[in-house]
TrEMBL record, chain A:
Residue intervals passing through the bilayer: none
Family recorded in the similarity comment: Belongs to the SKP1 family.
Subunit structure and binding partners: Part of a SCF (SKP1-cullin-F-box) protein ligase complex.
Region annotation (Disordered) ranges: 1-27
Keyword annotations: Ubl conjugation pathway
Protein name, entry field: SKP1-like protein
InterPro entries for this protein: SKP1, SKP1-like, SKP1-like_dim_sf, SKP1/BTB/POZ_sf, Skp1_comp_dimer, Skp1_comp_POZ
Key word Plastid present: no
Pfam families in alphabetical order: Skp1, Skp1_POZ
Gene Ontology BP terms: jasmonic acid mediated signaling pathway; protein ubiquitination; ubiquitin-dependent protein catabolic process
Pathway: Protein modification; protein ubiquitination
TrEMBL record, chain B:
Organism this protein belongs to: Sesamum alatum
Organism superkingdom: Eukaryota
Official protein name in the record: F-box domain-containing protein
F-box domain span: 2-48
């Protein structure tokens, strides 16, 4: 009985879900590019879902913190994950390939967009990928990649290097992969 | 969205760092002062333990820790790390602990652990300080020496270590058990925080 109550439409297709698939939204990037996307794919972003629910998505949704190139990538991700009949295995493979070719700068842009748009799966995937690329990297590589200037004195730095000499064993050469 | 300054906000950086192996993290402490304090932060240590420590590929790399007693009682205490999956393959990084008092190493034991943090202390010498260490990232802190009494007689001491989320710090509880044959020594308790203080001290007569 309880089960029946939870799902009153039974085996019929939920009309609301069906509507979301056919309804399209327009997302507008910071540089003014417009992208069409089905509502069912767009609402995988919690931020967009909230905007749609609050009904402040009158036609075009402006995303002033995401540039066109990044938004196109994010939409590719959303479309795949909203695809009917895409198995978990297929999605996992897609995620792997989706991030594998990206340069660090692109990963940063995508992780920021995923954070801003609250797309949990994408955020997790890109975060993990960035961490993977940081493994065994030198301190200098990190400073360059994250635009950090050392605020240690040369003496302090020498002292730390001595203290953690073991941690520098097996550091890769600074190649951007 | 790319900018020359700080490409990522701090919370994202912290999140990413928490998925890195301890060796990488230890070397990244010298990136900058703010990275150093992030990586040394107690909340981060706990987060790192739950992320990196539990991620799939590291599942089998639980760490076994041993204290090594040296023939010379004044020799520093050493810790060794072994993964339980295949101990033979791990380079054995020793960690030397410089205990303050002479002979302290002799009576120091691992008294408890929390999030990969180990508490080393003495069960019988009141005047031996408590050491906390995280052998994964070669971090150690000496808590202030605190004695329940000025006597140098052996006592019966117990310890516990835990994380207090409300103040974002690890705390150590030190207990002295009342000794029945020595009624003048009441039971007592003291709480230490890693940030370096004896927080509270209570003494009770042994009769209660």
């Amino acid at each position: 009985m309880a089960r029946k109550n939870r799902n009153p439409v039974g085996k019929n297709v939920d009309p609301e879900a069906q509507k979301k698939k056919t309804r399209t939204l327009t997302l507008k990037s910071s540089d003014g590019q417009e992208f069409s996307i089905s509502e069912s794919a767009a609402v995988l972003s919690i931020a967009i879902e909230n905007m749609v629910e609050d009904d402040c998505a009158g036609g075009v949704i402006p995303l002033p913190l995401v540039d066109g190139g990044t938004l196109a990538r994010v939409i590719t991700y959303l479309n795949k994950h909203a695809e009917d009949g895409a198995s978990d295995e297929e999605k996992r493979k897609f995620d792997e390939e989706f991030v594998s070719g990206m340069e660090m700068g692109v990963l940063f842009d995508v992780v920021l967009a995923a954070n801003y748009l609250d797309i949990r799966g994408l955020l997790r995937e890109v975060r993990r990928r960035i961490a993977d690329r940081m493994k065994n990297k030198s301190v200098e590589w990190v400073r360059k990649t994250f635009h950090i200037e050392s605020d240690f004195t040369p003496e302090e730095e020498e002292q730390m290097k001595k203290e953690f000499a073991w941690a520098w064993e097996g550091v890769d050469s600074d190649v951007d992969d | 969205m790319s900018s020359e300054e700080n490409p990522l906000p701090e919370d994202l950086i912290v999140e990413i760092l928490s998925w890195l192996p301890p060796e990488t993290l230890a070397s990244f402490r010298s990136v900058s002062k703010s990275w150093c304090s992030t990586i040394s932060d107690a909340k981060f240590v706990a987060k790192h333990q739950s992320h990196f420590g539990n991620s799939l590929e590291n599942n089998s790399d639980r760490i076994v820790i041993l204290t090594k007693r040296h023939a010379d009682p004044r020799a520093p205490l050493k810790l060794r790390l072994f993964p339980d999956s295949n101990p033979g393959t791990l380079p054995e990084h020793n960690m030397e602990l410089d205990l303050e008092k002479r002979g302290a190493a002799e009576s120091c034991r691992i008294m408890g652990s929390c999030d990969g943090l180990f508490c080393l202390a003495s069960s019988s010498c009141d005047y031996v300080g408590i050491q906390l260490c995280n052998p994964c990232v070669r971090w150690a802190a000496r808590l202030p020496v605190h004695c329940f009494s000025n006597e140098f007689n052996p006592v019966d001491l117990y310890y516990g270590v835990g994380f207090d989320a409300s103040v974002n710090d690890y705390k150590v509880l030190k207990l002295r058990r009342p000794v029945t044959s020595r009624m003048h020594m009441p039971g007592a308790a003291a709480v230490f925080s890693v940030k370096g203080q004896v927080l509270e001290k209570t003494q009770r007569p042994s009769s209660t």
